[in-house]
Amino acid sequence: MLSQIRIVLVSPGGSANVGSVCRAMANMGLNDLVIVAPRCDVHADDAIAYASHGRPVLDGLRIVDDIPRALEDCTRTYVTTSRLGLYRRQAAVTPREAAPDIVSHADRARVAIAFGREDYGLKVNELLHFDRILTIPADDGYPVMNLAASAAVVCYELRQAWIEHRGDKALPMAIEHGFAGDQRKQVMFEKFFDALDRVGFLDERSPERLKYGLRHMFGRLDLTVTEVDILIGMAAQIRWYVDHHPAKRDPPTS
Description:
Strand content: 5-15%
Distance between the termini: 50 Å
Helix content: 40-55%
Order of helices and strands: EHEHHEHEHEHEHEHHHH
CATH class of the largest domain: Alpha Beta
CATH superfamily of the largest domain: SPOUT methyltransferase, trefoil knot domain
Number of domains: 2
Shape: elongated
Radius of gyration: 20 Å
Largest sheet: 7 strands, parallel
CATH architecture of the largest domain: 3-Layer(aba) Sandwich
Low-confidence stretches: 169-176
CATH topology of the largest domain: Alpha/beta knot
Strand order of the largest sheet: 3-2-1-6-4-7-5
């Protein structure tokens, strides 16, 4: 079950941090590590030293070019952040709150949990790749945690949830086609956002805010392949209608 949980580091800048994350993962029984476009030598001497007995995790990590590649076989995706604007605050949950659901889902499909860069985290457009947001309830006076410390907290909560869950039998999936993978969902969001833009739903001044809100509203749902295909078809029909009825209409008055 824990082997189905993937830790993703986005462009880490310190090899010691990479090694420390490997150690924390090994401590808590996780072993799937993917690194997106690292800004350091992930196999440098200090990475090896800080990994200690987590060396197998370090040796087995994969490096990919971008976030979609890191998530491509996952059906649920999480991202950690300490920056809580309006939409992030509404969507965020703590690792302790999320861990039981992550572990339960990992009994049936792969889950990814991503951590941003040490210096500036993730950009807004990068956050749109993820279903759900995790935030560690640190003190308001200094809420930004070190990468390795954040990973250790999340991995610890996952292990505690796994200890509680492992005596339970997972319920069989009643959904015929199973959950939609991240690649299929990214196609859906690309087409859906384009369709909304064509009908003028996205605010020209801040389209990312609406995209962000919609992305994480859908992210709280376990969309099946069939449901994602329905939304893709809906987006295609909207685009077809706009293309064939280009005349401008007055916006609704209420």
